[in-house]
Amino acid sequence: MSLDDDQHVVFEGIVVFDTKGCFKVRLDNGEEVNAKPCGKMRKNKIQIITGDVVEVKVSIYDMTKGFIIRRVTSGNKKSAIKTKESNPANQKEKLWK
Predict the structure, then answer these.
(1) What whole-number distance in Å separates Cα of residue 80 and Cα of residue 86?
(2) How confident is the model at residue 1 (pLDDT cuts 50, 70, 90)?
(3) pTM of the predicted structure, to 2 decimals
(4) Which of 13, 71, 72, 88 could bridge 27 with an S-S bond, Cβ 3.0-4.6 Å?
(5) Half-sphere exposure (CA, 13 Å, Cβ side) for 26?
(6) Rounded to the nearest 5°, which phi and psi values hold at 12?
(7) % helix / strand / coil in the chain, to the nearest 5?
(8) Farthest-apart Cα atoms in the chain, separation
(9) pLDDT tens-digit profile of 18-39?
Protein backbone atom coordinates (compact mmCIF):
# COMPACT_ATOMS: atom_id res chain seq x y z
CA MET A 1 0.00 0.00 0.00
CA SER A 2 1.48 3.33 -1.01
CA LEU A 3 1.18 6.36 1.22
CA ASP A 4 -0.64 9.47 0.06
CA ASP A 5 0.74 12.93 0.79
CA ASP A 6 -1.52 13.36 3.82
CA GLN A 7 -0.53 10.01 5.38
CA HIS A 8 3.16 10.63 6.03
CA VAL A 9 5.45 13.22 7.59
CA VAL A 10 9.03 14.04 6.55
CA PHE A 11 11.61 14.68 9.29
CA GLU A 12 15.33 15.37 9.26
CA GLY A 13 17.64 13.52 11.61
CA ILE A 14 21.07 12.04 12.19
CA VAL A 15 21.90 8.35 11.77
CA VAL A 16 22.90 7.05 15.20
CA PHE A 17 23.28 3.31 14.68
CA ASP A 18 23.34 1.08 11.63
CA THR A 19 22.87 -2.64 11.25
CA LYS A 20 22.48 -4.77 8.16
CA GLY A 21 19.99 -2.76 6.08
CA CYS A 22 18.28 -0.98 8.99
CA PHE A 23 19.25 2.30 10.65
CA LYS A 24 18.34 4.05 13.89
CA VAL A 25 17.80 7.76 13.23
CA ARG A 26 17.55 10.45 15.93
CA LEU A 27 15.14 13.11 14.72
CA ASP A 28 15.40 16.83 15.43
CA ASN A 29 12.69 16.55 18.10
CA GLY A 30 14.70 13.90 20.02
CA GLU A 31 12.68 10.83 18.99
CA GLU A 32 14.41 7.75 17.55
CA VAL A 33 13.04 5.97 14.49
CA ASN A 34 13.99 2.68 12.85
CA ALA A 35 14.42 3.44 9.17
CA LYS A 36 15.30 1.57 5.98
CA PRO A 37 16.59 3.12 2.76
CA CYS A 38 13.87 3.65 0.16
CA GLY A 39 13.89 1.75 -3.12
CA LYS A 40 15.71 4.34 -5.21
CA MET A 41 18.50 4.62 -2.63
CA ARG A 42 18.98 0.85 -2.68
CA LYS A 43 18.77 0.74 -6.48
CA ASN A 44 21.44 3.44 -6.88
CA LYS A 45 23.56 1.94 -4.06
CA ILE A 46 23.76 5.16 -2.03
CA GLN A 47 25.85 4.53 1.08
CA ILE A 48 24.59 5.68 4.49
CA ILE A 49 26.91 5.67 7.48
CA THR A 50 26.66 6.69 11.13
CA GLY A 51 26.60 10.47 11.48
CA ASP A 52 24.92 11.21 8.15
CA VAL A 53 22.10 13.73 8.11
CA VAL A 54 19.07 12.21 6.36
CA GLU A 55 15.41 12.90 5.61
CA VAL A 56 13.04 10.24 6.91
CA LYS A 57 9.47 9.64 5.72
CA VAL A 58 7.38 8.39 8.63
CA SER A 59 3.80 7.12 8.52
CA ILE A 60 1.32 8.92 10.76
CA TYR A 61 -0.01 5.53 11.89
CA ASP A 62 3.31 4.13 13.16
CA MET A 63 5.79 6.83 14.17
CA THR A 64 8.51 4.32 15.12
CA LYS A 65 9.32 3.12 11.58
CA GLY A 66 10.15 4.96 8.41
CA PHE A 67 12.06 5.17 5.14
CA ILE A 68 15.18 7.19 4.48
CA ILE A 69 14.32 9.17 1.37
CA ARG A 70 17.56 11.14 0.93
CA ARG A 71 20.87 12.21 2.44
CA VAL A 72 21.16 15.89 3.25
CA THR A 73 24.40 17.67 2.40
CA SER A 74 26.06 19.51 5.28
CA GLY A 75 25.50 22.89 3.60
CA ASN A 76 21.72 22.47 3.80
CA LYS A 77 21.51 21.51 7.47
CA LYS A 78 22.49 23.74 10.39
CA SER A 79 22.80 20.88 12.89
CA ALA A 80 25.22 19.06 10.58
CA ILE A 81 27.45 22.11 10.56
CA LYS A 82 27.30 22.32 14.36
CA THR A 83 28.19 18.63 14.62
CA LYS A 84 31.24 19.05 12.40
CA GLU A 85 32.41 22.20 14.19
CA SER A 86 32.04 20.60 17.61
CA ASN A 87 34.36 17.75 16.59
CA PRO A 88 37.84 18.51 18.08
CA ALA A 89 39.60 16.87 15.13
CA ASN A 90 37.94 19.31 12.72
CA GLN A 91 38.93 22.26 14.91
CA LYS A 92 42.59 21.17 14.77
CA GLU A 93 42.39 20.98 10.98
CA LYS A 94 41.09 24.56 10.88
CA LEU A 95 44.04 25.74 12.96
CA TRP A 96 46.54 24.19 10.55
CA LYS A 97 44.91 25.61 7.41
Answers:
(1) 10
(2) very low
(3) 0.68
(4) 13
(5) 9
(6) -110, 145
(7) 30, 35, 35
(8) 54
(9) 888 899 999 988 899 999 998 8
